Amino acid sequence: MTENSTVISGTLCSSPRKKVSPAGIPHTYIVMDHRSQQIEAGFPRGIYCRMTVVISGQDMQVTAEKLVKGSNIKASGYLVWHQGRNSSPKIVLHAHSIELMN
Known about the structure:
By secondary structure, the protein is mainly β.
C-alpha cells in the first residue's frame, strides 16, 4: 500500500512555531481547526477536528512566513504518526502545499 494523500482546509488557531532540525532543515508547526458538513450513511454530519500541520524545507518557508493566527488555509500532504518526547502520540499532516485562502 502506497496511497497517503490528504487535503484539508481550516483556520489557524495558534501562532506558527518555527524550529530547525539538527540537519539544518527549517520546520514550521501550525495547528488548524477544521469544520465542515459531510454526508455519512446518507445523513448530514457536522465535522470538527484539530490537526497539527508540519511545513518543512526552505522553499516552503516563504509560504509559512505569511501565516498568522486566524489565517484560513488549504493544506495538502501526507499523514504521519508523530510522538514528541513529552507528548501523546498523534497523527500530523506533513504539507507539500499550503494555500492561503483569505
